[in-house]
Amino acid sequence: MFNLPDCSDFWTNFNFACGTFIIANIIYLVIKYELITVLCASKINEDSYENGGDLVAKVLKSHGVTHMFTLIGGHISPILVAAEKLGIRVIDTRHEVTTVFAADAFSRISGKIGVAAVTAGPGVTNTITAVKNAQMAETPLLLLGGAAASLLKGRGSLQDIDQISLMKSVCKYHKSVTCVRHIVPVLREAIQIAYSQTPGPVFVELPLDVLYPHKFVKREMKIKENPKGLLPKIMNAYLKFYLRYQFASAFDEKDLSPLPVYTPVASDKKISECQNLLKDAKRPLILLGSQALIPPTEAENLRKALEHLKIPCFLGGMARGLLGRNNPLHIRQKRRDALQEADLVILAGSVCDFRLSYGRVLSSKSKIIAINRDKTQLYKNSGIFWKPTIAIQASASDFLIRLAKKSSGYPQDEWLSKLRERDEATEKKNKEKINYNESRYLDPVHLLYDLEKVLPENTVIVADGGDFVATSSYILRPRGPLRWLDPGAFGTLGVGAGFALGAKLCYPDSNVLILYGDGSCGYSIMEFDTFIRHKLPIIALVGNDACWTQIAREQVPIFQSEVACNLAFTDYHKVVEALGGKGMVLTGDDKNNLESKLTAAFDLCKRGDSVLVNAHLGKTDFRAGSISI
Fold first, then answer.
1. CA 151 – CA 156 distance, rounded (Å)
2. What does the alpha-carbon distance between residue 507 and residue 514 come to, in Å, rounded to a whole number?
3. What is the pLDDT of residues 359-404, one digit of tens each?
4. Is the peptide bond before 312 cis (omega within 30 degrees of 0)?
5. What residues contact 429, with CB distance under 8 A and at least 6 apart?
6. Among 5, 88, 203, 269, which residue's Cβ finds the most Cβ atoms within 10 Å?
7. H or E element: which one contains 195?
8. Secondary structure letter of residue 5 according to DSSP
9. Alpha-carbon distance 237 to 103, whole Å?
10. Cβ atoms within 10 Å, residue 88
């Protein structure tokens, strides 16, 4: 027989330790948080179904939010229900990454903050790539993430991870809301920061016990009315105090209006210095980057300013299409040659990263005026391959508009004529590269030139791919401002469906065309289900060459291996048909009637169908030797 030890001292000490821990937590709350608020709060209506989701929706509504993108999850249901009640349109997708891509595109075009709401854990982690893409594209975006109840964090709750640590590196602002009354001030601050200085994404974490009604939270906390025993009584007291802390003053009237936003602008002195440089310039150029189009830019005012300045422009990223389809100031070809010849270059939101060969494409003899909202981007690689003559941390669009107002323009007809002649010569050479002899497959250059002929004027182009999309950038001409969407500097594949979704909601009466590579198509083709459910007709053209061609162009000649490069001529059009859309396939047999086939696809879309055109492409050397590192 074993004699059991006397455990009474152990349990006494254990109860004492637990009680001490709980009391210490109460004292911690008393010291750290608003004790007076908790004690003096008006009586909480325990039977009310008013909840934190209602407050979230009210803040969004007061900030002009009209659309929210989501993939449903139990952690965030109160937000979505409340948003719908207030007239905010809730668009649910098939993958969380699409919610952020859609919010990104919606923000870029509308000028309003893009909003996405996702559930906890994997819901949040699925958005990381898209949030990073928005950060690099400098898009004001609010990501709302559900979370485990505050008291259960770190205790093995469903989908409980340290989300704040994950989001720190990709967001300007990141905060977990600790009680219901903090929802409004935290969201107002987050939106203000998303817009201010250099815009970017922000993340607000909303735990279950902050979003759900008092009655629900109390039930889940399992608070008893008359517990027996010292430890249960102490635990119960702690939980009651904590619950009161969570809901104290939660629904008192609060200011919901937007906080002031700060946008850096150039001084009059800096603008005068730039005017003096321009007066002496014989071969000036403007390189306009995506940043020039981020909120609060008015694209039409910027277009008028560029036309008044009369300086030849290269347009990149979101700036594509700003000057329309055939504006003589817009130079499209031979940018490297033009930069070597220019005596003055204005980098208006353009960055000297890989897109400008880290500054190496700029001539050492050129004077450089650089304007950028972000100081790091403003001086990127400065002192290594280039150096700004004048560097201004400011809004590029505001700078150009004010520069135009203070001058009569800087026309240099001979310089512009030279650039235009070079443009036209390059266009002619590109057309000469069309392979009309291909029988089984289509030549991509031929396909894209025929698409350019029939592309409706009210079309928004979404670029999602490698080789096929890069080829299209040489050939297709965006029809107007904010009608070209590409990922930006991050080079993200998979943006297509989300960007198209955001664009269609901004331009409901326009055609939205996704240019897919067959590789990138695989990322988001399932979102055709989203387009069809929400009655948002989208058209997609897949350049299907059964290969990751952007990679194969370099990998095969360097390493003599096609490993992981090859795909198949998959029937992507049948996938869309299975989802309820329309599918078409184009092969070499259609090379003589491409215009009519493409027009028919746009007609189907105009009648309300989402359409995918699966174009089987042959190989081409159009972009031989092109790679960006």
1. 11
2. 14
3. 999 999 999 999 999 999 999 999 888 999 999 999 999 999 999 9
4. no
5. none
6. 203
7. helix 183-195
8. P
9. 43
10. 18
